[in-house]
Structures are given as C-alpha cells and as structure tokens.
Amino acid sequence: MISQVVCLSGGVGGAKLVQGLSYVVNGSDLIVACNTGDDFDHLGLRICPDIDSVLYALGGLSDQQRGWGRRDESWTFMAALKGFGGPDWFNLGDGDLATHVLRTDGLNRGKSLSEVTLNLAQALGIDACILPMSNGPIATIVNTNEGPLAFQHYFVREQCQPEVTGFSFDLIEAATPQPDIIRALGNGPKTVVIAPSNPYVSVDPILELAGMREAVTSSGAPIVAVSPIIGGQAVKGPAAKMMRELGKDVSVLGVAQHYQGFIDGLVIDELDATFAAEIESMGIQTLVAPTLMTDIDSKIALAEHTLGFAESLTK
Amino acid sequence: MISQVVCLSGGVGGAKLVQGLSYVVNGSDLIVACNTGDDFDHLGLRICPDIDSVLYALGGLSDQQRGWGRRDESWTFMAALKGFGGPDWFNLGDGDLATHVLRTDGLNRGKSLSEVTLNLAQALGIDACILPMSNGPIATIVNTNEGPLAFQHYFVREQCQPEVTGFSFDLIEAATPQPDIIRALGNGPKTVVIAPSNPYVSVDPILELAGMREAVTSSGAPIVAVSPIIGGQAVKGPAAKMMRELGKDVSVLGVAQHYQGFIDGLVIDELDATFAAEIESMGIQTLVAPTLMTDIDSKIALAEHTLGFAESLTK
C-alpha cells in the first residue's frame, strides 16, 4: 500500500504543518519539497531559509516566540560583524550559522544541496525526507514599484515595504526538479499537500519548475492545499499585502482562485466558513477546520484533518 | 627621521608586545609581520590565528582570562555544530566567526590576505600596519614521533602531546614575503623587534621566506628579540616542550643559540639574569628586564625597554 505524502512547503508557516504531518505520516513516507527560491549567498555563505525552517521544525529546534530561527539562539556574531562594519541587514544567529557553514562547506566540496540537506536532517534525527525543490540555483525576484528586488532584499532589507507588481524566478528555466520528488510523485503517492505557505513566492517557484506541475497532477493523488490566509490576513509574512497590491481578493477566495484548476481540495479556517460554497462552485472541495497552528497539538490536528480530507477526495 | 619599527610576531605572546609597541610607536610607523604558517582552512573558513591575535590585541578585543580569542565571546555555534555531528576539535567563538567569515568572503572575492587584514584592522580603528608575512598559503608542519602533523592538528587537536622531531613549512618555496614588509625593511627602519613568540613555529616561518632574513639583516636596524622563555618555561604554548624534545637548552640560552648570528640583542627576564654573561659571550647584547606581560602597563613597559635597548645598539 502506497502511503507516501508529498508536501510542497515554504518556510515558517509551511514548516508548522510539516511538523504536524511528521507525527502522523510514517518516517520517510513524508517527502517535503522545499522552496529554494528564497535562497541566497550572504557573506559567502549559502542560506536556505525555507529548508532551515523545516529542518529546525522537525528537529525540534525552532524558536516559538520569535517565530523564526533556532531556539536558545545568541547574537554575538552579529555584534562582532557590526563592529567590523559588515552588512547587518540580515540577522544570522550564532547557532544558525552552524547550518550555513556546514552547508556551504558541503556544497564547496561538491555535494548537492539535497545531499547536504539529507546529512543535516540525519544529524538531527529527522526521518522525514526533506528535499530542496531543485539542486540548481533559482532566485525569486520580487518586481516592485521600486524595481526588481532579490527576494531577501525585498523581504528582510526592505521589510516588504515596496509595492509588488509581480514575480519572476531567475534561472528556473535551467533548473530541474530534485529527482526524488519526481520519483515520489511517480510512485503514486497517497496525497499531495500544499502547505499554508505564500502562494506567490513559496509555492509557485516549486510548481514553475519544468515538469513539476505535470508530475503533481499526473501523480493520481488528491491535491489538497491549506490556506495561508485566515480571515483576510496572512498568519505571517507578506502574502495578504501581495494579494492586495496585485489586485486579488485578499481572502481564501483569492487563494482558491490562485490554485483553481490545479488543486482538488482547500482547507479553510472556521473564520472563513462563509466562503466554502463559492469555493466549491469553483470546482474545489473545501474542508473547514481550525488552521491556526499555535502549538504542537494544533499542528498535528491540522495535519490529521488535511490528510483525512484528502482521503475523502481520493480520485 | 626614520621612526618605523618592524616587529615579527606570532600569536598571543607576540600580540601582547605588539600591543605595548602600539602605545609607544606612532600609528602606522609600527609594521607587524605576522606568522601565517598556523593558518588553515576549517569548515571552508580561512583561519589565521596569529593575525587575529594581533588584531584583537590592538583592537582592544582580546580575552584576558582565557588568554586567546575575543572577550565577551559566546559558544552557541560550537554547540549547534556538535548537534550536527560537525568537527568540534577546534573551538570557534561566535564573535570570532565574524572575522573568519569576513576574511573568507574577501579572499573568495579575490582580495589578498593583506587587503583583507587591512580592512579588518581599519574597521577596528587600528593605526598600526598589520601584515601577513606572505599573501601565499604556507603551512607549518610539525614532524613528530607519530608522523607529520599540520600545525593546528598538533597544537589543538593533539594538544601538543606528540614528541617533536622537527618542522617544515609547506609551500614556502613558492611564497614571497608580503611586499610592504620588504619595503619597510628597505626604508631603513629604526628597529626590528622579534616578539616573544615561539622561535620554531612562529618566527622561523617568517624568516624562512625567500629574501626575508636578508631583508632584515640588510635593513641596517638593530635586531632585538624578546625571549619567550622565562625561568626555563614558556609563558604560553609548547616552546619549552619543543626545545626539550629537540635536545636544546630549555632556557634563554637555547633562545640565544637559536637566534645567534642573526640578532644583535636579546631581552631576557630578571629571573634569567645569570645567563646574561654567557649570552653576551655569544655576541648578543642583553637587556635584563621584566618580560612577563600581565597587564597593559607591563606590555608598554616592555615595549619601551625593548626599543630603548635597541636604540643603544644602533649599528
């Protein structure tokens, strides 16, 4: 019996659901395809924020208060960097640096990003299969009223202030999906889950990879997304602001419209139950469930709801 | 009037005297030629322990209690590295990492080690001219009864336990001295100081560089060394153990023998005053002075004694 679950995920919000899924899906049957469009080189270090969010979540290392990075973190490196007049717009925690240094060293020694990620995950005792969407470099560009911005420049340096006009994904034409993702999709997985991540900058880069969208739709598995929008707001990050600036419905309706024709089901929050009928009329089944993940119990519950809902949709 | 002082220095002990010198020599008239034979690549980072000891000393950042590295240091990176099963034999402080990351990034962008070092020094407000002995890679090898060991493997990983049989300096034939050092020596400096650093693994690599020994001797300046051995013991590090294992006199006599024919004067500690006559009979002038540097006053005093002594020797 095929029991694999493939989850397409961005960073923090996605990582929360992935953590929930890791409690209800058996070990390496959980395959996580992580967005790498946010990845960038900083001070010569390769930084992969979404992979790291998933690693830290599954490794039990996430900081719950701050909402990103590692718990028990310290910031002596940043203080010293500032003392040298180094670039301080991107915060690198001291413990977080170990991830970046080990990854960069591995890549420089000729390992692929997936090998390096696997090594990091194994060292943390993670059984789930955490994979970069691609081993090739891809860079999400946020087009704004101030011109195109590399994702981290938009997200961190400019704190999402510029008005968004669209997105592009540099180097995506030359990149191929990580082969194990395509293999898992080809094996007839039980479910494909789209985590509650930013549709534009976390999920779209994954789906825009050559062959990825086709591999998902032809997998035969129900495709279920969890809305990252609750009550017209993003739980975290600029998704709602982006939707508004792009002239979309800033609601679960906008999410449904974005994924229309691709997903089979959408999990929406109880706050958004009134939208269910309209979404269903778009050919998307809905499940109304609590989608705000505030602790491990709510993560596991949402994972269970999502997988149960998917099972009810089995094609 | 030429007032430049060229100081050949290793790490911690040398850095203390360099700090003293920086109080009595005007700004960039102090030229420090730092040993780079201890430098190595670790986790993809270029680590230059002796340059960093001098940078931290002159930048007022040295940790006085620990005796190496930066004050107000934290160790979260090492804890995270261990959590990933990474190599933990070499301690990298969180603040110290900023130096290594900035240096490595600069080198990877095509800067020379002297440019990178200059940038770091300027950022710390250091006026003295801190230079690597060479921009080329040179690796001190400690030959031992357990076979040849890269310096940091001998020094840190093996904690200086293996018995030393000799030394070699990999790649030194292909390396050239840093040009500003040769230029300063050619300008007729006032004094050449050999800091109280390990003669075998801190000073010899500098002097073994093609043309360096000749540039020092033909500079016309008095060459004065400060003994790293006090009362038959090294203040810090394996110098005394090495002397014993190499069958040398473990005393200031051994130091004098090592530098005989090269230096004009040797500063020895009051504890070793009885050796003065024998050292003078070897053609080396001596100054007896307190050489243990425990605080900034004793560093400055030793710097003043050393320069005054050198002046009395003017050729």
List the strand order in the largest sheet of chain A: 5-2-1-9-10-13-14
Give the CATH class of chain A: Alpha Beta
According to CATH, the homologous superfamily of chain A is CofD-like domains
CATH fold assignment of chain A? Rossmann fold
Radius of gyration of chain A: 19 Å
Major sheet characteristics of chain A: 7 strands, parallel
Query: Which residues of chain A sit in consecutive blocks of at least 5 with pLDDT less than 50?
Result: none
Distance between the termini of chain A: 16 Å
**What percentage of the residues of chain A does DSSP assign to strands (E)?**
15-25%
Number of helices of chain A: 13
Helix content range of the residues of chain A, please?
A: 25-40%
Mean pLDDT of chain A: 96
Assembly level: homodimer
Gross CATH architecture of chain A = 3-Layer(aba) Sandwich
> In total, how many beta strands of chain A?
14
- The rough form of chain A would be described as globular
* SSE order of chain A: EHEEEHHHHEEEHEHEHHEEEHHEHEH
* Pair with the biggest interface: A-B, 32 and 32 residues
Name the features.
40% helix; homodimer; three-stranded antiparallel beta sheet; Rossmann fold; 315 residues; seven-stranded parallel beta sheet; 14 strands; alpha/beta
Can you describe what's shown?
Two copies of one chain form a homodimer. Chain A has 315 residues and is α/β, with parallel strands linked by helices. Chain A is built from 13 helices and 14 strands. Chain A has a single domain, classed as CofD-like domains (Rossmann fold), CATH 3.40.50.10680. In chain A, the strands form four sheets. Chain A has a seven-stranded parallel sheet, sandwiched between helices. In chain A, strands 7-6-8 form a three-stranded antiparallel sheet. A two-stranded antiparallel ribbon of chain A has the order 3-4. In chain A, helix 1 links the parallel strand 1 and strand 2. In chain A, helix 1 runs parallel beside helix 2 and helix 1 packs across helix 13. The longest helix of chain A has 17 residues. Chain A starts with a strand and ends with a helix.
